[in-house]
Design goal:
The protein has 3 helices and no strands. It is an all-alpha fold. It is globular and about 40 Å long. The N and C termini lie far apart (about 35 Å).
């Protein structure tokens, strides 16, 4: 998909993913897996309008990453 330019490729650091995970946990009451938190971390880079609809698949469980979250605190 990269070569054909049919996709958008973004990146987030682990630090950005952790911050996004804490934000989602606080605002939605969901503890996302760190893999999904990377997706949440790049949402602002998409420059979405208020009428846009965004669907994020919450894959995995955040409870398995609690040790990482607690180290970050």
């Amino acid at each position: 998909m990269f070569d054909t330019q049919r996709g958008i490729f973004l990146s987030a650091t682990d630090e950005q993913a952790l911050e996004a995970a804490f934000h989602v946990s606080k605002t939605e009451g969901i503890i996302p897996a760190l893999e999904t938190a990377h997706a949440f971390a790049v949402i602002d880079q998409l420059h979405l309008s208020p009428k846009d609809v965004l669907v994020v698949c919450l894959s995995g469980r955040g409870d398995k990453d609690l040790a990482t979250y607690m180290k970050h605190l």
